[in-house]
């Protein structure tokens, strides 16, 4: 049974303040920013969860904790199933290498047999429609081209749990349609989806549940329409408050 569960998770970012601020102030040491404290979430087989929240609510951080990119300082992440994550157009790509070389490396890192890597690469090149650009360094790609490449990389995997963070909207309209179709086909084989996106249209297309988070806390977790309704309501209130200031 595929499942992903976060149990009493605590997570903070550690960072050094900006150089100018650091030199001018006496307390220039390492800072800590607490994002999640005693955070719990349990996602089951068949759940296609939209992750909602304003900028800075903690969506990307949460996805990275789920994916194992970040380790919580306390608590546990228990996952049953093969996870694949898409974190946008720059993560997992080496800009100095060509698109093709990046694909080859990705295939090798996933420990796939050579024949499968070559087959998948053909499919990805075809899907991304990058043409001759596939031989050029990724640093010369436009934003849309990078999205096509990194999104195409999803073709390498058959995952039980798909974690997708934003980024998808960066492609042109035509590619977006293609990407949507592709996600639909991936969803046939994956059992859990967690999808952070600011487009309600996309979220409604792919999700059946939603979790609304704010300042690292769950405000509501449940049926998609209900949570979207609450989110819109709260945003409306917030806008009204801001306008009144
Ligand atoms: N590398 C970092 N160092 C310090 N603080 C960070 C770092 N990355 C994010 N944060 C902080 O953590 C909190 C959660 O950020 P996160 O990126 O998870 O939000 P988000 O909901 O994904 O936002 P957005 O919708 O803008 O992408 C924010 O307060 C943010 O300022």
From TrEMBL:
Annotated InterPro entries: AAA+_ATPase, ABC_transporter-like_ATP-bd, ABC_transporter-like_CS, ABC_transpr_TagH-like, Bact_Polysacc_Export_ATP-bd, P-loop_NTPase
Entry-linked CDD domains: ABC_KpsT_Wzt
GO cellular component assignments: membrane
Gene Ontology molecular function terms on file: ABC-type transporter activity; ATP binding; ATP hydrolysis activity
Keyword Magnesium tagged: no
UniProt-listed Pfam families: ABC_tran
UniProt keyword annotation of DNA damage present: no
Signal peptide coordinates: none
UniProt keywords, alphabetically: ATP-binding, Nucleotide-binding, Transport
Annotated ABC transporter domain residues: 4-240
Highest rank taxon of the organism: Bacteria
Family: Belongs to the ABC transporter superfamily.
Protein name: ABC transporter ATP-binding protein
Upper lineage: Bacteria, Pseudomonadati, Pseudomonadota, Gammaproteobacteria, Lysobacterales
């Amino acid at each position: 049974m595929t499942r992903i569960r976060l149990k009493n998770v605590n997570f903070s970012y550690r960072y050094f303040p900006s150089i100018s601020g650091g030199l001018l102030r006496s307390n220039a040491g390492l800072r800590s920013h607490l994002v999640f404290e005693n955070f719990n979430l349990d996602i089951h087989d068949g759940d296609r969860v939209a992750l909602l929240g304003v900028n800075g609510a903690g969506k990307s951080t949460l996805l990275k904790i789920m994916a194992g990119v970040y380790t919580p300082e306390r608590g546990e992440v228990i996952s049953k199933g093969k996870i694949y994550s898409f974190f946008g157009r720059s993560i997992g790509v080496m800009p100095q290498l060509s698109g093709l070389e990046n694909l080859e490396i990705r295939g090798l890192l996933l420990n796939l047999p050579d024949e499968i890597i070559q087959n998948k690469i053909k499919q990805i090149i075809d899907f991304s429609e990058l043409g001759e650009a596939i031989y050029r360094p990724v640093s010369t790609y436009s934003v849309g081209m990078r999205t096509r490449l990194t999104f195409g990389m999803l073709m390498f995997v058959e995952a039980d749990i798909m974690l997708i963070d934003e980024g998808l909207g960066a492609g042109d309209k035509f590619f977006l349609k293609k990407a949507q179709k592709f996600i639909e086909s991936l969803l046939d084989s994956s059992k859990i989806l967690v999808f952070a996106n600011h487009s309600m249209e996309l979220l409604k297309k792919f999700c059946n549940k939603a979790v609304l988070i704010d300042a690292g806390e769950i405000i509501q977790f449940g049926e998609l329409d209900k949570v979207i309704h609450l989110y819109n309501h709260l945003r409306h209130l917030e806008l009204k408050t801001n306008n009144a200031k």
